[in-house]
histidine kinase
Amino acid sequence: MSESPPRLWVELVRPASLLAPSTLPHLDSTGVRTGRDRAVDAVACCVGAVLGALFLSPDLRDSAVTLSAMQVAVDVSCGALACVSLWWRRRWALAVALICLLLGTFSSSATPAGLLALSSLAVHRPVRSSLLVVVLWIPSLLLFAAYSPTTDPLTVFLQVTPLALAVTAWGMFIRARRQLLLTLQERALRAEADQRLHEDTARMAERTRIAREMHDVLAHRISLLALHAGALEVRPDLPPAKIRETAELLRSTARQALEELRDVIGLLREEPGQQSGPPAPQPTLSDIRRLVEESRRAGANIDFQMHVEHPEMAPSGLGRDAFRIVQESLTNIGKHANGTATTVRVTGAPGAGLHVSIRNREPLHAHAGPVLPGAGAGLLGLQERVALAGGTLVHGPDGSGDFVVDAELRW
């Protein structure tokens, strides 16, 4: 359904500042003119006045039929009003174009101002507004020819109509060019925003990975330190040889923790393009036995069984993931269920996958002494690690009163 005439008229003559910013490439969303806009508008008024005088001068000097004094006064007054109205050509583009058109019906000196207003209308408003004013120029020219004794309709039509079409086409070209530039600018801004989002996402993923690695490599060592120190605290009557052995364990565990921390900090401090040192050796399936022995030396009661066919054929990522699962599980047992019976089972073969199971009895009573802090991020990190590897991991208490960590890894 087409718009009704009153509604269409309101749409055409409403202030340009109320339009969407995409239709006003030279104004901001508030419609406030800049100093440069005011200077250009002032120049447009002056240019319209100068050209208006040039349009009027042949009628005053060269015409065989001279204008009366009243006609000259009307012509000059209308031309001056048309030039002054150009000051508001940005905000009220259609209204100014129509005013100049009306004034040009009785004034040849208002014609240049009308052409400038028409060009500005084509720049600042949609094409339908410009076409409407161009069509109205035809009856306006015919009325001027009937009013003025110095010209005829055909001459006026042939002289002014090409100018009106030319300035309209020029204004449309400028409008299209500005909209193209705005589109390119918007795309560039969107691309920059997408790039920043991509960088932030990559940075967050890298931070998460580094945090997970720091947790994996340090939490177990520090937990062992706490367990060894706790054993010395609750058993001050240990033989000197046992105290010396425990102190040696504390020293070696602390040294290993510092070395692993140094490796992680080296990754954080590494500059882009800088040649990094040799990567730290990553744990494998064979290192799980060493891990269990370290926990046993700290006092853990672990029943360990490992039946893996061709463990040397296991990919490095698979061995690292299995090691981290056992490491985190033993760390949590040392924090929350120290001394309980623990079972560690690692079974698998190429093509059949790798199954890792850690089971311990949940303590019936809270153990004495301070509880080691934990944020619960370890198991969450394990789930993320296993999910990225395409495996599954479940954890939690079962019906028999055991806490179970069970993982299935692809191999």
